[in-house]
From TrEMBL:
Family in the record: Belongs to the autoinducer-2 exporter (AI-2E) (TC 2.A.86) family.
The keyword Transport belongs to this UniProt entry's keyword annotation: yes
One GO CC annotation: plasma membrane
InterPro entries: AI-2E-like
Keywords: Cell membrane, Membrane, Transmembrane, Transmembrane helix, Transport
Organismal lineage: Bacteria, Bacillati, Bacillota, Clostridia, Eubacteriales
Transmembrane segments: 9-26, 32-54, 75-101, 172-191, 256-277, 283-304, 311-332, 338-358
Membrane topology: Multi-pass membrane protein
Chief place of localization: membrane
GO biological process: transmembrane transport
Name of the protein described by the UniProt record: AI-2E family transporter
Length: 369
């Protein structure tokens, strides 16, 4: 028998056996896969931290390198940049838990305390409108209790987030160990990034064909650039939009400025539809207080989003990830359906990478044709 034919038959038999084993033992393999992923959890978390801190670390490294260029401490630029990046992260987390979170809880509790009065006002407006149209009046007491229950759950989640995290993870020792190992991994990745990348390139060149190695390197660079641009862009846009919304609401003397600002900021993390979702949720809260203030808020938010999207975002973030709007909406829908909020965040850059690779391949084939 020809060697090439024998090898092809062997590959087909091996593939069929593996496929049957996967189908028959799917539940066991899924449990084993989950266990293995759990063992590598500190590495994954460390990689995520290093990825988020990579850009500020690079900026600090360039700053320190210029300052220490002609001194004996030139080699300290990278360690100082890593330490400064972690200090910045600690300051931001501390500011959130000490300033933003208490204001958010206070706003929600204040809203809950005034809920009955707001619902009576809304019911009065609606019943007046319905009576004018000669329609049956409404009773919104059940709706009021539903909103109270939902917001009370949010407050309980925010005030007990750390204890819940400890309970879900197992115990405090497990949380501390996982966090410590994640920080160690991320610090090593940031400080030894150039060495790690060099080692990966050497391994790839040693074991992969030249053409395949070049393709993998290109895909990795594309993925890194796309995720970096997307994560940086969405975080900056969310912070700017949330902060400017809070300041604008304080200026127009609207109620619940911190709560509305956080809603707008968090919803801005969702591409395309986030702004509409955040605006709708905020309007629902404000209309119970004052319909006139709600109209002013919507006009202000529309102007703010136009200004932020056309003036601030292009200058701070730069160009977009290059994905058409229809594919962004598709990626958000599919990602959210499969993996909830995390899927919404990561689906867009993943779709952008796949779209770019497909577009390149199509252009290449048409060019060859």
């Amino acid at each position: 028998m020809d060697k090439k034919l024998f090898r092809s038959i062997l590959w087909i038999i091996t593939y069929a056996v593996v496929l049957v084993l996967v189908i028959v033992k799917f539940d066991d393999l899924r449990g084993l896969f989950g266990t293995v992923l759990g063992l590598f959890q500190p590495l994954f978390i460390g990689f995520a931290i290093a990825f988020v801190l990579n850009r500020p670390c690079h900026a600090f490294c360039r700053l320190y390198s210029r300052g220490l260029d002609r001194t004996r401490a030139k080699g300290l630029a990278r360690p100082l940049a890593v330490a400064t990046s972690y200090l910045l992260l600690i300051v931001l987390i501390g500011a959130f838990f000490s300033i933003v979170l208490p204001k958010l809880v206070e706003s929600i509790q204040l809203f809950l305390g005034s809920m009955n009065g707001y619902m009576q006002n809304v019911q009065g407006w609606l019943n007046a409108l319905l009576s004018t149209l000669h329609l049956e009046t409404l009773d919104l007491s059940n709706f009021s209790e539903l909103i109270k229950t939902a917001l009370s759950g949010v407050v309980n989640t925010l005030t007990t987030a750390v204890p819940q995290l400890v309970t879900i993870t197992g115990n405090i020792i497990s949380v501390v160990v996982t966090g410590f190992l994640s920080i160690i991994f991320s610090a090593y990745m940031l400080s030894g990034k150039d060495k790690l990348l060099s080692q990966c390139r050497r391994v790839l060149k040693a074991y992969a064909p030249k053409r395949a190695a070049a393709w993998v390197t290109d895909v990795v660079h594309l993925t890194s650039d796309t995720f970096t641009a997307f994560v940086t862009g969405q975080l900056i846009e969310a912070c700017i939009l949330g902060g400017m919304t809070t300041l604008g609401m304080l200026f127009i003397q609207a109620d619940y400025a911190p709560l509305i600002g956080i809603i707008i900021g968090v919803s801005a993390l969702i591409p395309m539809v986030g702004a509409f979702v955040g605006g709708a949720l905020s309007a629902i809260l404000l209309v119970m207080v004052s319909p006139v203030r709600t109209l002013i808020f919507l006009i202000f938010l529309l102007c703010l989003q136009q200004f932020e999207g056309n003036v601030i975002y292009p200058r701070v973030v730069g160009s977009s990830i290059g994905l058409p709007a229809i594919w962004v909406l598709t990626a958000v829908t599919v990602g959210g359906g499969l993996f909830q909020f995390v899927g919404i965040l990561v689906s867009v850059p993943i779709a952008s990478v796949l779209y770019t690779l497909l577009r390149r391949n199509v252009h290449k084939r048409l060019g060859e044709a």
